[in-house]
Amino acid sequence: MELDGIDPLQVPVHVGCVMDGNGRWARKRGLPRSEGHDAGEEALFDVVEGALELGIGWFTVYAFSTENWKRPPEEVRYLLGVNQSIITRRLGELHERGVRVRFAGRRDWRVPKRLLRSMDEALERTEANKAMTLTIAFNYGGRAEIVDAVRGLVAEGIRPEKVNEKAIRSHLYLPDMPDPDLVIRTSGEFRISNFLLWELAYSELVFTDVLWPDFRRENLFEAVREFQSRDRRFGGLE
Ligand code: IPE
Ligand code: IPE
Ligand code: MG
Q1: Hey, what domains does the chain have and what are their CATH numbers?
Q2: Could you give the dihedral angle defined by the CA atoms of residues 123, 62, 139 and 124, in that order, rounded to the nearest 10 degrees?
Q3: Ligand 2 atom closest to Cα of 23?
Q4: Which of 27, 149, 233, 234 can bridge 171 by disulfide, Cβ–Cβ 3.0-4.6 Å?
């Protein structure tokens, strides 16, 4: 019934999601922020199920930004732990559902070796899965991604006249990933916070007041209905 009103032929190919509001969710309940991060896991898995139901082929979630290192060390440590724990505990389930898991972000010295290893294992184990590609943007920044792409081009000795959009795109973290059609941000903030800057040039943006730990597949369906009511022109005319 929740699918009511969604045109199955116009489902977005790629949906991105800025999972925000865990801290406020916890504060409202008089709980420590860490409880909000824990509660985000259920939201994530419910939404992944919903995305599978809709037949969304690509789903990208913002889990940790290049700016999130600015948080107090205990919170950073907690967030690293939450991600590590989700990847190790729930990979089997994602694999069973045919989800291909990938990661976008900088693999720098601040990311624990163990986490990098778990990411590599998740990637390898689910590589051949076809139902959906779930990209976890971890230690990800849109500006860092563009900087890294330019570094790659310069390292190859590219001539200035060869620098074009195609060349930059081919050096992004996941060059084969289609641009997101729809990007959702929870928690009532009207900003992008460095998510997929290059890729979202023509994405439809949907903002919702729902805090991430309360977000469920019905909220995803609602965003998809909103998406389907939009008129995408890509700078052209109808
Ligand atoms: C999102 O929730 C999780 C991350 C950014 C890693 P927040 O921790 O940003 O929660 P708020 O925005 O402070 O409520
Ligand atoms: C964006 O949320 C990053 C993630 C959800 C991982 P933030 O909470 O870090 O963004 P700001 O600080 O509100 O812009
Ligand atoms: Mg936040």
Answers
A1: 10-227 (3.40.1180.10)
A2: 0
A3: 8
A4: 149
Q: Encode the chain (238 residues) as per-residue pLDDT tens digits.
A: 457 899 999 999 999 999 999 999 999 999 999 999 999 999 999 999 999 999 999 999 999 999 999 999 999 999 999 999 999 999 999 999 999 999 999 999 999 999 999 999 999 999 999 999 999 999 999 999 999 999 999 999 999 999 999 999 999 999 999 999 999 999 999 999 999 999 999 999 999 999 999 999 999 999 999 999 999 999 999 7
Distance (Å) from CA 162 to ligand 1 centroid: 40
Closest residue by Cα to residue 140 from 191, 220, 64, 73: 64
Query: Is residue 79 within 6 Å of ligand 1 at its C-beta?
Result: yes
Alpha helices in the chain (DSSP H): 22-28, 33-54, 73-96, 113-126, 142-155, 165-169, 217-228
Q: Position of tokens 């107090």?
A: 72
Q: Whose CA is nearest to atom 10 of ligand 2?
A: 193
State the catalytic residue, choosing from 4, 7, 20, 38.
20
Give the CB-side neighbour count of residue 76, counting CA atoms within 13 A. Answer: 13
Is 68 designated active site? yes
Residues 6+ apart with CB under 8 A from 43: 19, 212, 213, 214, 215, 216
Tell me the three state secondary structure of residue 214.
Answer: helix
- Catalytic residue among 7, 46, 68, 164, which? 68
Question: Does the beta carbon of 213 sit less than 6 angstroms from any atom of ligand 1?
Answer: no
Q: Beta strand pairing status for 99-104 and 14-18?
A: unpaired
